[in-house]
Amino acid sequence: IHETLQGMFNKDDLSDVVVDPMNIEDFFQYVLIPEVAVRLIMGDMNLRGPNGMASATKIMKESWSYGSQMFPAE
């Protein structure tokens, strides 16, 4: 997800002011990546609306340990 998002945005066009008080890497890590992950889970599991988002968030949190062991960050 991180590599795909980085490819979608030209870092020269992004400034830290846009996501103040975070820097752009923190914004990717703590906002964009989790949001995309939840949306992908919602799509995979055919979840909709606020309840679907809550369910997808729960699934993401419950599977975090497995995912980080099977797919460690490079």
Automatic annotation (TrEMBL):
InterPro entries: RTC4, RTC4_C. Keywords: Cytoplasm, Nucleus. Its main location: cytoplasm. It comes from the Eukaryota. One of its GO terms (cellular component) is cytoplasm. Residues 1-71 form the Restriction of telomere capping protein 4 C-terminal domain. Pfam families: RTC4. Belongs to the RTC4 family. PANTHER family: RESTRICTION OF TELOMERE CAPPING PROTEIN 4 (PTHR41391:SF1). May be involved in a process influencing telomere capping. This is Restriction of telomere capping protein 4. It comes from Dendrothele bispora (strain CBS 962.96).
